[in-house]
Structures are given as structure tokens and as C-alpha cells.
Amino acid sequence: MTSTTRAARGPSRLQLPEDGFNHPFQESECDVGPHQGKEHPRTIVELRMCALSNRIREKPDWWEKMEDETGEDANPEWKLTPGMVGPAERVWKSDKLIPSSLRERLLAAVAPLESVPDSEKDWHPGSDGLVLDLVHPSLYPIVYERTMSKNPGSASPTVVEAPEFCDPTFTSQTFQWLPSDFSVDPNGKVTLASPYINNVHPTRHKDICSVIPEILQHALPMFERVLSDAIRPLLPMRIATSGLYGEETADCIWDGVIPCPGSLNEEDQEAWLDKHPFKTPDAREHYDGDLGVMEDRISLRDRTIQVIVKLANIVLTPEKPEYPGGKWHVEGMMNENIVSSFIYYYDSENISESRLAFRRATSEPHAHEQDDSKCMRVLYDMDRDLPLVQNIGDVVTKAHRCVAFPNLYQHQVQPFRLEDPTKPGHRKILVFFLVDPTQTIPSATNVPPQQREWVTEAMHSADGNSALAKLPVEVLTMISEANDGTMTRSEAEKYREELMAERTVFVEANDQDYFGFEFNMWHIFMIAFHMTGEQPGEASPPSNSPKPKLLSSASRRERKGQVKISQ
């Protein structure tokens, strides 16, 4: 069905996948085709086109300037051809999603968490006093075999058990972040269905408990966009022809190049290739991207969703004027089954421009010849023995902006610093991590609060007519300490250190096994022969194509790890 036909009949509702969404919590396989969310890579040319489009869309009221006829005589180097469309796919952003009145309420609700004495401020471990945690899921997480859970139909709580039959590389046997359940009615109104949000006191910080569902309600359409994108293929390639298996791939750069003499040695062949220009791919003359399918969407209405909440500030001072940036990572582990993240940059002051970068693991591109390193570098910035990963773009993280993206993508906070180094500055974020809506994990609905001080405080403030009010303070304290389902603040901080250490190991394993899978051109070449019925000894490059040179091991070592695409 064409995009025109789809547009004429209007958008349709997509169904949630029965087997859940693709995720990065697994080892890669040596596979040519897409699997578990890994599509074929885009060419560098196409990625740069998308980056240019994204830069244009950063301009205020860019859609009006695009229609401005006075721009007809603008520098042609800055003009878009009809084949150039779209920023990074599956990444959504908005600067007008959250009403200013709701933002002001959030600022006021969070203020009590920020105004605690310095001795009580919770600086994120390992952040060198730059990241202030206000609400963080690593504090008071589920601790398997210790955290208690209420069971339907039973008066006695039981411990939450660790997952069974799971790969321990990607599934924790000790911890799980604790989400809250939110009910979405048929009209899209969101309410908190759980008794509390982890690390948000239900009475002292009731304003936060009130404003969070309202912001989540505004975030819902962006989550729906991300999930809808996640269950359909990427848009058709803007630079492609039919390739192996009938799938789209880019033309070989050697097509039409004067063949170099067969008598040349490797060094002379390299010099020959450097002197003779090759053919770089260009966009299709006609391209609509089948954009009509983008209107078909998953709906999260009339269901309960599970969301993990995070509030944090990055605080810079003249003594510490720069944030060095973060590591490439995905959120959570298989335990949380996070499918999408939503970040609301609700306040910034005196900081330089900052960006959130994205990259995705890809399947192996179609090699046109055995060991055709130069062609792969020119087309995809990929080479043998280097990770099959592509930097697909970044988003400016300015104040009031909302960004949503799939957890299949790694993301990385880019460095930023104080604009005026003599004054302090900050950036404040609210983050929602959406659990796969086809799955259900233990939540604040069945896991009572684990903060022992909350329980103690509740008992001491009990109604005067209750039995608790008649007990001595010492007895109430003994009851609180005997509660196996709670933990002290110091215990929670110790568990946080263990959780962070565990997830540091996971990030490294995830980098190696999913995002660090290496490009094996010989494997691709052999599969191509298998598909065509030829034998390696019978194959030969096209008569008008020079034989690509082999990279030396020294050259490969020099390029090892250089996977960032220049933009």
C-alpha cells in the first residue's frame, strides 16, 4: 500500500507485538540480515543528509523559513534536494509538549528535594559531586530474596524471587529497579495506580506524586510514536538499489572506475586508487519514504503501563565548571525490560549547548567483493574487525525540550560547561523509563515501601484511636526494625553501590556482545557465493572494477575503535 493510499484512508491502530518488543539484552549472532532490532546500516551520505535536516529543524520556526521564497537564491550548498528528509529515525523531540504552567508546578514540587541541608544531598556515586540525585531508581531497588511482595489472595507477603532460566550476563540475579503502575483511561488521562512512586514520599512530596502523572500524560503520544516505530522496519533507504536477497543496498563505489592494471603491487594499486575518483552514491530522484505508515500508531490508552521515574540535576560551579559527558549505554537490564526512555529537560541555567547522541547496532552490510575494505569505509564508515555500530545523530538538549527514543539505541550525554565560568549553572531533568507494555514486572503496586524511616514515621503519626498510638515509642521502634521488608538508608546506599557495580559490568558486556559485534567481511562474502551458487575460486570482480586492497594488520589496529561518523 502506498503512502498516498494510507494518507487517504487515515491512520490505523497498530497492535502490540505478542512476543514483546526487540531489546538489546542479548548476545549478537553472526547474521547477515536484520535480527532483534538490528537493521542494515545506512550509508554515510544518508546519515549526513539526516544530520543536515536535523540541524535545519533546530532553527526556530524552521517550517516557515522553508516556505520563504526569498531563500530561492540562497547558497546552493545549503539547499536540500528532494531526496533529503528526516532526522534520526525513531527519535522524537518536542519543545512545546509540556505547558509552562505544568513546568512551574514541577519546579515548585521538586524544590523541597533540592533545599535539604548539604549533608543530606545525595550526590550520585562516582559523579565527582556534579550529579545530584533527587529521585533515583538505584536507591531502594528490589533486592531478590529480601524485598517483600504482597500476593493476591494471600494475607502473608513473600519475598520477590530472582528470575529463572535467564542469561546472567544480561539479567541480574540480585536487583531490579522498582516501577510504579499508571492507569491510562480510554481518553488518555493518566493516574497513578500504585500507592507510591519509589523514593517519593507519598505525603511529604504529594505535589510530585500529583504532577508526575500529568507530565506522563503529555509524554504518552511520544512513547506511542517510539513504540510504533519500533515494530516496523526503518524507512526505505534514500540511497539504495536492489542487492543481496532482493533487499536494498548501496551501489558499489567501483562501478564505472577505470580498472587498475593487474600487474600493480599492493602499494602501487593503492596509489592508483587514490588518483582515480570513485563514484559516491547519491539520493534517489524520487523518494516519498512511505511516510504514510508513520501515522499508523500503537495506542497505550485503556491499559496500565509501568514506568520507572528519575529526577536529577547536573550542577556546575566555578570550581567544577565542566561536565565531562557520559558513557554509551542502554537503560536497565533484562529485569526492567525498558523499551523506551523519555527525558524532559525542564530547566537549564548558565550552561553551554549540550547534546544527546545516539548510535545503533547494525547487521552486516552487503560486501561487494571479498575484503573490499575501502568500499565499506566509503559507504558506511565500517571496516573489518571493527564494531557493527553506527552513530545516527544527536539532539540538542535545551531547556523545555522533551526527547523520546527506543532502548535499542545506546545514548550518550555529550560534554558541556558553564557559559559564564564565574557563576554556577545547572541542568534539571525528569526521566520516564517505560517497561515493555506487553510484560509485567514487580512494581510499587505489590511491593510495599522499603524505606524504614517511612514505616517508622507512619507508625508514630498513627491516628490517636488506633492500637499503634497506644504503644510506647520504644516498642514502635522495635516493630519497625523487625520488619523484614524494609531497610535503613545506609543499607539502601550499600545496595546501590552493589547494583551500580553489577551494571557497570553489564554495560561492558553489552558493548562487547551486542554493540561491539565485529564486522566479518569474509563471512558476508561466503554467504553471497552460497546465494549465487558460485564457489570462491570461480568468483571474480566485475571487469571494470579494480581489486580493492587488503588493509594491513597495522592499519586495522590504527582504526580499531574509530566508529564515530563525522558530521
TrEMBL record:
Location of the region described as Disordered in the Swiss-Prot/TrEMBL record: 1-38, 534-567
Domain of life: Eukaryota
Domain DUF4246: 18-70, 88-457
Biased composition (Low complexity): 540-554
Protein name, as recorded: Uncharacterized protein
Organism: Thelephora terrestris
